[in-house]
Design a protein that fits this description.
The protein is mainly α and about 80 residues long. It is about 55% helix and about 0% strand.
Length: about 80
C-alpha cells in the first residue's frame, strides 16, 4: 500500500498559484450556483455547496499558515502603521 508524502517543497510562488486557482474555482462555482438558484437542480446545488465549503476551508487553512510581518519596535518609539 502506498504511503503519503508528508514533505512538500513548494515555493511561495507555487502556493500563490494554488491559492489563485482555488479562488478562481470558487468564483466559477459561485456563478454556477447563482444560475441554478431558480432551477429545480437540488442535487447539483448540493454538490456545488459542498465543494464551495471544501474550497473555503482549504483557503482558510492556507491563510492561517501565513506569517504576517510587523516591524520590531526600535528604541522607545512604538511602530505606528500608515
Amino acid at each position: 500500500m502506498p504511503k503519503y508524502n508528508r514533505t512538500f517543497t513548494l515555493t511561495l510562488h507555487d502556493v500563490e498559484q494554488i491559492e489563485t486557482a482555488l479562488h478562481t474555482r470558487k468564483r466559477v462555482l459561485s456563478e454556477r450556483r447563482l444560475a441554478l438558484l431558480n432551477s429545480e437542480a437540488v442535487d447539483e446545488t448540493a454538490n456545488i455547496d459542498g465543494e464551495l465549503v471544501e474550497i473555503t476551508d482549504l483557503l482558510g487553512r492556507v491563510h492561517n499558515q501565513k506569517i504576517f510581518y510587523r516591524p520590531e519596535m526600535t528604541g522607545d518609539v512604538p511602530y505606528v502603521s500608515g
